[in-house]
Each structure stands twice: as structure tokens, then as C-alpha cells.
Amino acid sequence: MSNSASILVVEDKESEREAMARLLRMEKHDVLTAPNPEKALEYINEPVSLVVTDLRMGASSGVDLLRRWKQHSPATPFIMVTAHGDVESAVEAMKLGAEDYLNKPVNPDELLILVRKVLESRQKDEKIQHLQQRLDHELGFSNIVGHSKPMQDVFEQARRAAPVDTTVLITGESGTGKELIAHAVHQHSSRRDEVFVTVNMAAVPEHLVESELFGHIKGAFTGATNPRVGRFEAAHRGTIFIDEIGDFALASQAKLLRALENRTITPIGSNDDKEVDVRVVAATSRDLEEMVADGDFREDLYYRLNVITIPLPPLRVRRDDIPLLVQHFLRRFCESNNRPLLTLDPDLVQFFQTYDWPGNVRQLRNCVESMVVMAANETLTIDDLPSTISDGPSNGDMAIPAGTTLEQLERTAVEQALEQFDGNRTQAADALGISVRTLQRKLKAWNGEQREQQPHHVRRIGRRHF
Predict the structure, then answer these.
(1) Where does 160-312 show beta strands of DSSP type E?
(2) How far apart are CA 310 and CA 179, in angstroms?
(3) pLDDT average, residue stretch 395-402
């Protein structure tokens, strides 16, 4: 805690006023004094950290001072000083916002202990407020770069959804920033002071889905040597963000539906239900309607999730935001790598805006980070682009044959990335800005289509990457 604070002492008896002021000055505090509430109010615009005031001062009242001061500066703490027979008035003052009270005659040690306690509490509150403001900036809408019309529409939808305590489904391609929007929704909701718990279904093995979300008791299954608190219980009173919910195991979807509808969970191996108060924000890069039609996703769960839907546009349809994003990432990575801010060659800027970015914002961020780390000069040029981008599969200036579908472009991008890395799926997925599991899912789906279209004897021939 800081060694000094500005304290205002209000007391009509001069000897008592000066005694308290002298004691507080010995503690290195800056002390202001006033003989009555009228004089005390002359300091209302000063940076006063604490007011110590007598409750009764002739015709004046410390409670009146408290009321008027709190209207102007509600965060300023008050300590009331009262005679033994006026404790009820001191309690009333505490109901109006006073921190505590002392009985006369004031014990010096009690005064100093109480002042330290109140100042420490105020300092903690200021730190929490500062942290909250920082979170608002870092996790709120102001931290999401996007001035284009598509992104402004997203912000408007998210702002309207945030205060309504209902399920939100965020859709969009991988790498578009769905988790950032989820954080912003939480940060602008009534649950902002509670936890934000994230679980990525694409990273959870199917046989561990229920344990991850709902927990388990000791001995529930082989290897369950200790009880586990699931993500839903950990998010109690806060928000749970379920990313890539399209990868949610079909066999476990009924339990998720029950948790959403009844706000109860049952840990694996337990016979006892647990109530959970959570807001669910889900995200997916898959077409859930198509999955419902194919029988891969429960229809009732889809409708329960799809209360408010926020679709995120891919980067290629919000090209006006690309220069802003590049500068944002450039500043961030130059700072984190202790480098002076680099400049961009105009041809490079044009390339950034015409490239299709199949991995969206995530791929752009990875590209800028790589260029900053590897830069040999103060100006970045096209020559500094990672080979996965400069030799990459998708550029807005490329001639695209008429009738080419988005899926065909996506397949071409995946094929070229795999060829670039000699079939290494991890490196290809990273270059494309998608998860390995997403890449594997796409390859599996495309391979299934190939097999359906080929005669039986052809299916036995090697299939390259697919």
C-alpha cells in the first residue's frame, strides 16, 4: 500500500480535530481539517482519499456531509466518529455508505488500524476497477479491429445480445475471431465479474467429452483416481464458451441439451444432480443445419443453441479491415520482440489486401508475426513473406475459372499446402490458419466423396493426401 493518503478530518472541537490530524500526519498522511460540514465541502473537488468526520457538530451533522459528498464522489470512504449514546445514528450512516465508525473518546491505535484497513480496501477497489477497465479494453469490442460494414454489423448484433442472458451461437470459418466476440459478449454482460471458461471440442477426445464438461467422481471409470470438476461447474455464475461445437460427440449431445434446458449436470458415476447457473456461448465453423439434415447433430440441440446467431464474415469479404489488422499485429509483435516499429512497402500492403487468406485473421496474424521475427531490414517487402504465403494457394489477383465453387477453391488451397509441406498435416494446417483436426475432418469428408464417386477397383489405388 502507498505510504501516504490525503485524509480530511472534520470535527468541531479544535483539540480533538488537531489531535487526530497530528496522529495521522505522524503516519505520513497529508491531512486536511475542517470545523464543520460547510467548510469540509470546500474540499469536495480535491483528491481526498478518506473522510474522518464527527457525527454531531452542533447544528450540523456528519450524516448530511456524507450524503452530499457521496452524491458528488460516491467512491470516497467515510469513517464516522460518535459518542457512546449515538451508535444508532452511526449505524444509519453506515447504511448510507460509511465504511465504519469509532466511539469517543477515540483510541489512537483503533483509529490508525481502521484508517489502514479502509485505505487498503480502497486501494484494492481501485486496482479491481483498473483491472476491469483494462479487461474492457482488451476483451471488449474496442479491442476487435474492424471498421468495415460487415464487422460493424457483427458488433451491433453482439452488443444487443450481450445483456440478454441467453444462448449465443457464433458461426464463421476457422480463424475469423469467434472467441474474441465471445469474450466481448461476456465482458458486456451482467456476468462480466464472474469467470469465462473456454473448452474447444475439437481438442477433446470423444471418450472424454462428458468428463471434460460435466466432471466425474472418483472411481467412475478406469483411470479416474481423483474426482474432477467439469467445465460447466467451473463456470457457475459465469459464461462457458464451447468452441467448435459442431465436433461435439453425437452420443453426448443429449446431456448437453439437458444442461442447457434444466441447468443441471450429473458428473459421470454420480447419482446426484448439480445445479449450474451458466450462460452458454457456442461457436462453430461447420454448417450445423447440414449436420442436422445428415443426422450428425441433434435437431433439438441445434434449435436450443440457435437462439441468437452471430455470423462472422471471412477476411476476404472485409478487405477494408486488412490494413488496420496488419498495423495492429505489426505494433504488437514489434513490441513483444523488442523491435522498433517496422514500415511496410506499398506493394506488400497491396498484396495483403488482394490475398484471399483462407485461414482468415489467424493466418494473417501468423504471417505478420513470422515476418517481424525474421525481418532483416526496417522495411518489410514481399520478399519477406513466408514461403507458404508467397507461393501459397490463394491470391485475389489469380484468375479463377468461371463456375469454380468455394469448396473447390478450399480443396485447392489444402492440396497446395500439403504439397508445400510434403504431406505434413500439422504444418499445412498451421499455414492455412486452421486446426489439425479441422484439416483432418475436411480430408476425411473429401475422401469419402471420392470413394463414393469411384468404381470399386479404383478405390484401392493410392489416394495421395486424401
Answers:
(1) 168-171, 196-200, 239-243, 264-265, 274-275, 279-284, 308-311
(2) 12
(3) 49
Distance CA 301, CA 292 (A): 10
- What SS3 class is residue 352? helix
Say if residues 330 and 368 touch (Cβ distance below 8 Å): yes
Read off the C-alpha cell for 224: 479416474
Q: For residue 223, is it left (φ>0), alpha (ψ between -120 and 50) or beta?
A: left
**Do you find a cis peptide bond into 105, omega within 30 degrees of 0?**
yes
pLDDT in tens, 128-168: 555 544 544 444 556 678 888 999 999 999 999 999 989 99
C-alpha to C-alpha distance for 7 and 33, rounded to whole angstroms: 8
**pLDDT band at 406; cut points 50, 70, 90:** low
Q: Give the residue from 246, 143, 161, 238 showing the smallest Cα distance to 198.
A: 238
Residue labelled with grid coordinates 463456470: 235
| Residue 249 to residue 232: CA distance in whole angstroms | 17
Residues paired with residue 268 on neighbouring β-strands, in sequence order = 216
The proportion of the chain whose per-residue pLDDT surpasses 70, expressed as a percent, equals 87
Q: Which residues pair with 239 in a beta bridge?
A: 196, 279
Cα 321 from Cα 372, distance rounded (Å)? 20
Torsion angles phi and psi, residue 70, rounded to 5: -65, -30
Report how far residue 2's alpha carbon sits from residue 94's, in angstroms, rounded to the nearest whole number: 25
Burial 77-110, CB ≥16 within 10 A → b, else e: bbbbbbeeebeebbeebeeeebbebbeeebeeee
**454 Cβ neighbours under 8 A, 6+ residues apart:** none
Contact indicator for 388, 366 with CB cutoff of 8 Å: no
DSSP summary character for residue 97:
T
DSSP class of residue 216? B
